[in-house]
Amino acid sequence: MSQTLTLSPLDGPTSLKDHAYQRIKDAILNLQLKPGAPLVEADLAEQLGVSKTPVRDALLELRREGLVTKIPYSGTFVSEITGKDIREIIQIRAVLEGLAARLATPHLSDAALEYLGGLIDRELDAIEVDDTELAARLNSEFHEIILAQVENQRLVALAENFEDQLQRFRTLSSQLKGRLKKSAEEHRRVLLALCARDADRVEELFREHLLSVLDDLTNEEIPITNKEAV
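Request: output the structure for the sequence above.
Response:
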């Protein structure tokens, strides 16, 4: 394979296909396997220490999810990230997650709000020591905790439907200078509105936060395909 990534061998009694699926998917979402990277069954199977069958099944499932693309007579590749993808998915997610945050506002306990404040502090500490992986994880947890308080399960399901693609965008945005700190500051403003139980303001700030990520992703030089399509 042309990628430098090395996948560790699989172990344990769980389905080999499930293991292969999760290892490959994680590598795609974290951009260890970059958009456009070739996915050769034999190479992946060798790295994971399994036969080609579970790898083939895993790649088929990832194709259904849109993370992998098969091109006739060329091979199988990690799906590209285009400017159009970023714009469409973040615009939709901004509306869905803004509404979700609005609905979650009255259900977040004081303890939960205090925990969210701690997450922001930890995120800023991680940024200070240049631990972007931890900062990005804490950033995601902030969103997850709020979404978990929404009692409209159809809304939650719709929002989560875009989570995998959004994870790739978050990884891209974490590579932009100052983006993680900007996100933490935007989270702080959301938290203040949550503490005030101002659901209208919470929704507005959440939409602005996600659209701010969109602006930064589409205005900076980042490694995506067809950036001009934004």
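The chain has ten helices and two strands.
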